[in-house]
Amino acid sequence: TDVLKSGKNQEFESAQLVPMNTAIAGATNGNQEDFYRFSGKKGQRIVVDCHAARLESGLDANLRLMSRDG
């Protein structure tokens, strides 16, 4: 499933809900943060992959995984 970035997900409280097995298409203007949320289960394996380098982008992406409590 492909999902477009909503553009209104720059705060933890407004994280964009995405289903599992999703590719998110988006762009950044520099030091912007985007927040996404998904439903998971204890012990479930989650894989997150950023294709920036494979697309010859200079983006140095970072990922921080948090609980719903932050």
Task: Please provide a written account of the structure.
The protein is mainly β. Helix content is 0%, strand content 14%. The protein has strands spanning 2-4, 16-17, 23-25, 36-37. The strands form two sheets. A two-stranded parallel sheet has the order 1-3. The relative contact order is 0.22. The mean pLDDT is 86.
Cα end-to-end separation: 27 Å
* Fraction of helical residues: under 10%
Strands of the largest sheet, in order across it? 1-3
| Strand-pairing-aware structural class | mainly beta
Q: Please outline the major beta sheet.
A: 2 strands, parallel
What proportion strand? 5-15%
Q: What is the alpha-carbon Rg in Å?
A: 13 Å
Quaternary structure state of the chains depicted? single chain
Entry keywords:
70 residues; mainly beta; 4 strands; 0% helix; two-stranded parallel sheet
